[in-house]
Write a structure and sequence with these properties.
The chain is of the alpha/beta class. It has helices at 23-33, 67-80, 132-145, 181-191, 213-218, 221-233; strands spanning 16-19, 35-41, 48-53, 56-61, 85-94, 104-112, 149-156, 176-178, 194-204. The protein has a single domain (16-233), classed as 3-Layer(aba) Sandwich (Rossmann fold), CATH 3.40.50.1580. The protein contains 6 helices and 9 strands, in the order βαβββαββαββαβαα. It starts with 15 loop residues before the first strand and ends with a helix.
């Protein structure tokens, strides 16, 4: 199998890849949720594993932080390694009072302050949206699992430390802020593949509540199980 500049697989990727930002979360998912998981990529420490969940092949690989990083990894997975579906599983900052710490947010769309979409040369503004097939399955499974979840727009921000408030986007209904979904959605749209972002609220911009880095790495199991249930239903 031919390597790319960022992925040198020592095994096959499944058609569906769960994609957290943190390589340690990728390892946590592989070790705690997949059966017979094997490390198949570790270029730049971006760990990628393939195993099975309830007998169905599933891969998990980190994306790194930000739209440029997930743009690279999603493009290469979709274009060169037979991947059809990428489900981002990550943390996000709550931006609405009814969105609580540890709630799950399913990103129907992803607003962004990024210029990533300008590469497509469009005379207007692209609307990055999830793949309906994955979105529908995620909502169905979230109901079955009895999760505390919300469906709506995420904000994919290029800045973590910003001179302006992300809460301005909350006026337009954004539920939570993260840093990758819009780039993933646009890449999937361009390549005619499927993408969905499922995030757990790790901190809250209004209340000031927050979780620890260890909690973000090792907990948030509702989001992971939901993503895996979607993966095996495709």
């Amino acid at each position: 199998m031919k390597a790319t500049p960022h992925i040198n697989p020592q095994g096959e990727f499944a058609k569906t890849v769960l994609m957290p930002g943190d390589p340690l979360r990728a390892r946590f998912i592989a070790e705690n949720f997949l059966e017979n998981a094997v490390l198949i990529n570790n270029v730049r420490g971006i760990q990628g594993y393939t195993g099975t969940y309830k007998g169905v092949p599933v891969s998990v690989m980190a994306s790194g932080m930000g739209i440029p990083s997930i743009g690279i990894y999603s493009y290469e997975l979709y274009s060169f390694f037979g991947v059809e579906n990428i489900i981002r599983v990550g943390s996000a900052g709550g931006m609405q009072e009814n969105v609580k710490i540890r709630d799950v947010v399913i990103g129907m769309g992803a607003c962004t302050n990024s210029a990533f979409g300008k590469q497509y040369g469009l005379e207007g503004t692209i609307a990055p949206i999830a793949s309906y097939q994955l979105l529908e399955k995620a909502v169905e499974k979230a109901r079955e699992l009895g999760l505390s979840y919300h469906v709506g727009n995420l904000l994919s921000s290029d800045t973590f430390y910003s001179d302006t408030s992300s809460l301005d986007w909350a006026k337009m209904g954004a539920l939570a802020v993260e840093m990758e979904a819009a780039g993933l959605y646009m890449t999937a749209m361009r390549l005619k593949k499927n993408a969905l972002a499922i995030c757990t609220v790790s901190d809250h911009l209004i209340t000031g509540e927050e979780t620890t880095s260890e909690e973000r790495q090792k907990t948030f199991k509702d989001m992971i199980i939901l993503a895996l249930e979607v993966a095996i239903s495709l």
